[in-house]
Structures are given as C-alpha cells and as structure tokens.
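Q: Protein A?
A:
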Amino acid sequence: MARPARTRRTADVRIGISGWRYPPWRGVFYPPGLPQAHELRWASERFRSVEINGSFYSLQRPDSYQAWYEATPDDFIFAVKGSRFISHMKRLADAERPLANFFASGLLRLREKLGPFLWQLPPSLRFDEARLESFFRLLPRDTLSAASLARRHDHRVAGWSWTRADANRPLRHALEVRHESFVCPELVALLRRHRIALGKTNGAIHGAVELGLLADRSPSFSGFLLINDSSIQVRINCELLARQCI
C-alpha cells in the first residue's frame, strides 16, 4: 500500500530591521537629503518587515500606527516591541491593566500588517515559572481578544484609545530572555505549552548555546527570532514572522 503523501509546511522568511529612525543611517542606508518622514517608506521598499521600537519606550498613538500602515506596502509585516513598563517596571506582574492600555494604544490599526510581539525581559529578571505562566495567560492570541482586552483600559489612554479590530486574525508572541537562569528545560516546556517563540539576542545571556540546544529538542517549537547586536539586521526564523498561525 502506498504511503499517503506528506503535507509540507511552507514558510515565508522575512528579513527586516529593528527600528528605522537612526541618525547614523542617514546618508549611508538612506540617501542624502531623504526627508525623515519618508524613511519608513524607503526602508519598507527594501525590507519586508520592521520592528516598531517606540512601543517599548511609551504608548504610541492610533494616528501613528495608521500612518505607518499607510506608508508601507501591502505585503508588509510589523513586529512590535512590548512595553517596557510591563516587562521592566512591572516585571510581568499585575500586567492585565497595562496590557489593556498597550493594546488600546492603536496597535489594531496595523490590521493585517500586525505581526509578532517581542517581549524583552530585563537582564536582572530571573526565571520564575509562575510569573511567566500568569503573564502568558493574559496575552491575547487573536485580534478580537486583543480588542476585548483593550476595552478594559484605564484613564491613561482615555479619549484617544483604539479598541476595534477590523477582522479576527491570529496574534503571535516571542520572549527575549537575558538572564542565565532561563537556561533550563522548564522554560522550553513553558514556551511550548503556550506556543511562545524564543527571541535570542547575540551575547545577551550566558549559556545561549545551551539554550538553543534545549530548544532543538522540541521539534514542534514555534521558532527563534535572532537579533543582531548591531541593530541593523534582524534574521527571522521561518516560523516566527511568516506563519499566520502559531
């Protein structure tokens, strides 16, 4: 009896940059005289993905997300860096209201261009399975869930929030760890259980090789986001940015 044909997964590999407003790039990557307002458009015509970094430092505005959406080609994906208020100040604890504010700040105006969220942890934060478990359970996994969460925002975004999704689409998340205590099989099991990708920055933690070996033992693991220290190039694992479902 002939074996049934295997279904092959296809993936869309995207190479992009982390942010796009860097003065040293002007006249080097960007042509001399290019207006700053046109830098995202220029970059998006040469890369198929860009990470929004401003969302890490402060809540952005719906009009900004709409402008970024309009400045980029149809087949474009934005990665979004999670708020440092959540990751560094709250250290993932009591995160429901801050997450609501984050998702109410206009992210859903990126529509089909909204890609994965990168949650970068501070170097001093040690592995805490219970803390991570609670945080992962709060993360919305589709845009309708994100809109529902956004509607629970507080006064910090009152008057300018955006809490509507134009369609229901899957949302994906990646975790960037920076303390060597995360080199443990419990982390891999936790990430697999919640289908969270692992972000790895070159040189960010000791034992990164061992961490990669642990993840390699999990064939169904969702993938890696590899970030170059120079902040000029992001090499994306084919299952992170590309897959429309994680």
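Q: Protein B?
A:
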Amino acid sequence: MTTSLILFSFCITLFSYIFASAIAINHEPANEVKSEEHQRLRRQLNKHKKHHDANGNNLHAERSIIDFDDLMAKFDPNAPITHGVPKCLTEPSKNPTKPLILISKGRTGSTLIWEMLSELTDSRLYGETIEYVGRNLNATLHFFDMTYPAMDKMNIPDPNHLDEILKSSDAKKNEIPGLHNSEHGEWMLNRMCRLHKEIPDAIVGFKWKPHLEEFIINEEARESLQLLASLAKAAAKKGQDPPIRVIRNRRNELDITLSNLKHYLKPDLDPHCEQGDEDCIESHEDGKIFVQSIPRLINIVTRDFVTENIIDDMLKALGVSFLPVTYDTLYYPDQISDRVGEWNRMVQLVKPGSPIMSEADIIASTTLESTSSSRYHDDIIKNWKEVHEAFKGTNIEHLFRLSP
C-alpha cells in the first residue's frame, strides 16, 4: 500500500475528541486521569507526539502523516511468538463453537452481532468478555502496557473501567499482559483455552476495538496480532481452519460519526433498545442532527475511513485470517439474500456444520431494536444539503446516502 494520510487523536479518549470536534466546542476530557499509571500513559502519548513533531509534523495541525510501510516495519518478523497450534485449541471439546474475536469499532452493531450469533448457534450469551481488551483507546493502551503489573490493571481503579471489565470477566493473571507476565500474545491463548474448556455452552472470546495508536505504541498489541496470523498459518499447513476465528465488522464511517454525535448531544440516551421498548426507540428518533462544523465532520469521517482501510490492509499483510462483514449488509441489506448469506457465513465460521439459517431465523434471533431512525442521511441531518455538497468530490463522497 502506498503512503496514506491519517488523522490521529491523542486525547484522553477518542470518544470525547470525536464529539468535541464534530460540534466545534472545546471540552475537557470525559475521564480525568488521576492515577500515576495514567499520568505515565499520558506522558508516553506526548512523547510519541513529540517524535512526530521532530520529524516535521505540526502538533497543532489536524493531520499527521504515516507511511504504511513504516507502520508494518514496527512488526518484528522475529518476534518470539508461539508457532504451531496449541493442543488446547485442537483437542476434542464439549464446546461446539470456536473461540471468536470480533474486530469492530464502537457504534457498529457489534453487541447485537454477538447476541444474535449466540442465539443462532444455540449458545449461552457470555457477554462479560465482549470488551475485554478495553472500551476505548486509553483502556486498550493500558491493557497492552507491558511496563505495568498485570494484577494492578485489575485491582487499581481505572477511569476507563478496564479494572471493572477484567473483574467481571473473572480474568486470571496469565490472561492479562503485564510486567514479567504473559508476553507475546500468550494472554490470548491462555484465556481462550481456559474459557473454551470451562464454558462449553457459550461462544467464548471478545470484541477488539481497533485503534492504530495501540499498534504504533504497544509491541504486545502487535505481537498479539502476529500470534493470530501464526496460528492461522500453522493450521493451514495441516489443512485446518484457524483455531481462533476472527470476524472483521465495518460500518459506514459517516453513520458512526453521526451516532457518536447523537449520543454526545443526548448523554442520557440508552446505547441499545430492547425489542418493544417504544419509549427508548422514540428517544432515538426524536429530531434531526444539525452539523455545526461541516469541515470538522469531513475531517473526522475521512480520518476514520482511511484508518479503517489501513487496519484492513494491516490484517491482510500480517496474514490474519478474518471474515469481513458490514453493518449495512447485516441490518439494512439491498437484498434479503445478502443478509441471509452474511449471517450464515458467520454462523458457519463460529459453529461449523450448523443448519442453514433463514431470514425468519435471523429476525427471530434479534433481541435489540435498531436505534437508527433511517439509513438515509437526508433524513438524519437537518442541514443535509450543505453537508452533501461538501462531500462531493472527496474520497468519502460515496458514504453519503440519499433517499431514493
């Protein structure tokens, strides 16, 4: 891949940065960094930013430049990762499903994907693990930080709730990357093997929200991806499928940004609505979004679009085997057959040999209502004509959907 432009947000959380940028208001970080560890993490991010500045990038500008080859050069081809598939992932198991990693940004329907897959594969929902590596960038950087003791990540209160996630997930020490503990992606093998054996009636695994910053900064995050690629390669040599299955889900980046903005403007809005909860559904459909700063919106959507493309290319270059799916096909397909095919591919990936699912089966598995009032941006954006005009001629023009 050739040189690519990407906008990096080195704020306390990516969440607060997106929202503040979209409405052109200055906001303090949503989670104030209190602990010594997070002060150290902030210094680490600042050091990284100064490195870019020393190489000619303006820290006050909204764009910084990264070359894809430079990104890939950070992955050590001689990293001491496991080669070969551990017996714990190949020996007969009472669990008919395969360990799963769902690589997907927030606001992409990933929670619903996990719940529906559990329903379609007759599996118990084991949701405590869904955001195991972190709900946002800061928490994910903390999770992969090898300079910090593993158990402290669970026992010291974290403003990004990583400690709460690990506790509710019943994490073991060797399932958390940390100082002198569980290096080179072994945390992932330890966790997958234990859960697959102990929980025979659930899809075990987690959702991984991808941020390029984590792969730039954290060697452990890079080696964890390399381990996934190594497992897939070793299995392929034996004519087998990857022992840990990976689904890569994407959603239209404009939709993600608008969803983020909606929740920022309405902080009490529930992230999901149960079926039949008319009050919740109505609260999501109440009013259109007025975009105050269209240039900011363009910058954010462009950055996220390019970032997601780079992540896809990174996974492919490493050799990580994954099934690509999209939010639109899963929930708003042009043809019903497209949705049925997409869901069946995921079901067969997670539980090989499952019966073929019909559209009726897929609808019946839905436990949450869609909170999107429309998939067309002229229905969602109050000043859509101005926004649409600004999108014309850009590399993200195709993301803007007009109603027929």
